[in-house]
Design a protein that fits this description.
alpha+beta; 2 domains; about 190 residues; 5 strands; Nuclear Transport Factor 2, Chain: A; 5 helices
């Protein structure tokens, strides 16, 4: 009789320990899924999970990862418009021509007018080439979508296997709630 009881006790103990371990993994998976659903409510960005930290018996779970955002064409156009607005402007051909003619002596007016026309044509050609290369660069950049990555983290607290509270730890725009509450209590 004693020989049969020992294997039964061992199998029962292993099953109980295995059930306790899976509860921890279920809590971490539940927190990850909740984090994904909360992100989907606020933006179409994707979440990549890098690490799941689980506390004792799965009572506290912290999920860390990154939010990847694909820059849309309208966002890229707005960013390039902002860059163009802040870019230094080249001197126009008229300003360069007037500077050259003002510096020329009175006896060489005919020569100065020839130089003025040459400077104006060079300035016009330079501005046209800059505009063309800017257009080419914009078309090359728009061919490949750009991704930005932002660090993200969320914390879930559980009472057994039931979720008690969820809160964003990062990024700041999600961690700072609009209503003023520090975390969302799930009941």
């Amino acid at each position: 009789m004693k020989i049969r009881i020992l294997p039964i006790v061992c199998i029962t103990t292993a099953a109980a320990l295995l059930a306790a371990c899976t509860a921890v993994y279920k809590n971490s998976d539940a927190c990850e899924q909740l984090m994904r659903s909360k992100l989907a409510e606020t933006s179409p960005d994707t979440l990549k999970v890098a690490h799941k930290g689980v506390g004792i018996d799965g009572s506290r779970v912290v999920v860390e990862g990154s939010i990847e955002h694909v820059v849309t064409a309208s966002e890229a156009a707005a960013a390039s418009a902002a860059q163009l607005a802040n870019a230094p402007r080249p001197a126009s051909g008229v300003r360069a021509a007037s500077a050259v003619s003002a510096a020329a002596p009175a006896s060489g007016v005919a020569e100065a007018s020839g130089v003025t026309a040459g400077v104006a044509s060079v300035a016009t050609a330079a501005s046209a080439s800059v505009a063309a290369s800017g257009g080419e660069a914009a078309s090359l950049k728009s061919a490949k979508p750009k991704k930005t990555s932002t660090a993200a983290a969320a914390e879930c607290t559980f009472h057994g296997s039931a979720l008690s509270a969820f809160s964003w730890l990062a990024p700041a725009k999600l961690a700072t709630p609009a209503s003023g509450a520090a975390s969302e209590v799930v009941e």
